[in-house]
Amino acid sequence: MRTEMTLAVETFPIAGRFVISRGAKTEARVVTATLRAGGATGRGECVPYARYGESVESVIATIEGVRREIESGVDRQALQRLLPAGAARNAVDCAMWDLAAKRLARRAYAIAGFERLAPLVTAYTLSVGTPEEMRAAALEAAHRPLLKIKLAGEGDEARLAAVREGAPHATLIVDANEAWGEHNLVALLDACARHNVALVEQPLPAGEDEMLAAIARPLPICADESAHETASLDALLGRYDAVNIKLDKTGGLTEALLMADAARKMGFEIMAGCMVGTSLAMAPAMLIGQMAAFVDLDGPLLLAKDREPGLVYEGSTIIPPPPALWG
Question: Would you give the DSSP letter of residue 92?
Fold first, then answer.
């Protein structure tokens, strides 16, 4: 069946600033793919990420390069071969899932083999800052059960102590975003253990993480920048205990489901993660969240304004998406 595709670039301001070890951003620029066929419409959203050499312009160009094939009606499996893993394929793949759900009058989760979608408790992210700034942010968010704190290397022990002081009862995830090195890895992991951190994401740069296999890890380590798609899993064995599955890295829900299944069989815990995007990007990731030990789908909570209709967040609990949003 003939399919019509439209692409749009949309901008959503972030509430305040979102700061990690690599820099700060004040808005989320996303690419939305809309597919129309047989009287039905499906949508998917991606967030191009400069760390992986992506931009809004490059994502648009990548999708446009296969417009003819997409509009001729290729399926999700063919799309896997047409486009590499990454943001461009994610937008189109998720739009295909949504379109199929609308055309079949079935929920996407049912098509994927789930009986239902359960509500999920998401982490809430605290940007990196001075210890004083992070203590204040933690105090404000202390009512949330799960906090994810961004760290940056130098001064992280003080930041960690300040967050724990501000939120003494919250479960903590630490995300170093590749900012640590061999010179401070052991000391910072020990500090995390002392402050009862539950998980540390990507402490070392991707491709420079051999040391993780040579040390006694005092708490679970999760691969993020080192984990992209199913084919990346073998290299993580012995170095990581968990993998952060993000649809913008896997190139969509199709590959994310395959990766989650393979990761669990290999003994990895699953973390369902996201870039800073809207509810349209979070909705398909809710399926990965059903298999995850840790969920980090707080993108809309970090925005000044989400798209409508959006996901409903009851505190840190995400209610499954309505069909009008996705799936």
Answer: H
What pTM was computed for the model?
0.95
Question: Exactly one of 246, 249, 265, 305 is catalytic; which is it?
Answer: 246
Q: What is the pLDDT of residue 26?
A: 85
Note if 249 is an active site residue.
no
Q: Which of 150, 249, 265, 305 is catalytic?
A: 150
- The answer for residues whose C-beta is within 8 angstroms of residue 21's C-beta and 6 or more apart is 128, 150, 151, 152, 153, 176, 177, 178, 179
Active site residue 246: yes
What confidence score (pLDDT) does residue 16 get? Answer: 73
- Do 236 and 290 fall within a single domain? yes
Residues 170 and 198 in one domain: yes
Do residue 87 and residue 233 come from a single domain? no
- pLDDT at position 18, please? 76
Q: Is 153 helix (H, G, I), strand (E, B) or coil?
A: coil
Please tell me the predicted confidence (pLDDT) of residue 25. 77
Q: Are residues 230 and 125 in the same domain?
A: yes
Residue numbers of the chain with a pLDDT score lower than 50: none
CB 238 within 8 A of CB 213: yes
pLDDT recorded at residue 1 = 76
Q: For residue 64, what are the domain limits?
A: 4-105
According to the model, what pLDDT value does residue 250 have? 98
Gap between the Cα atoms of 254 and 153, Å rounded: 35
Question: What pLDDT does 90 receive?
Answer: 98
Cα–Cα distance, 16 to 138 (Å, whole number) = 15
Contact yes or no for 279/302 (Cβ under 8 A): no
d(Cα 26, Cα 17) in Å, to the nearest integer?
5
Number of H helices, E strands in the chain: 11, 14
Angle at 309 between CA 325 and CA 170, to 5 degrees: 90
Domain count along the chain: 2
At residue 290, the pLDDT reads 98
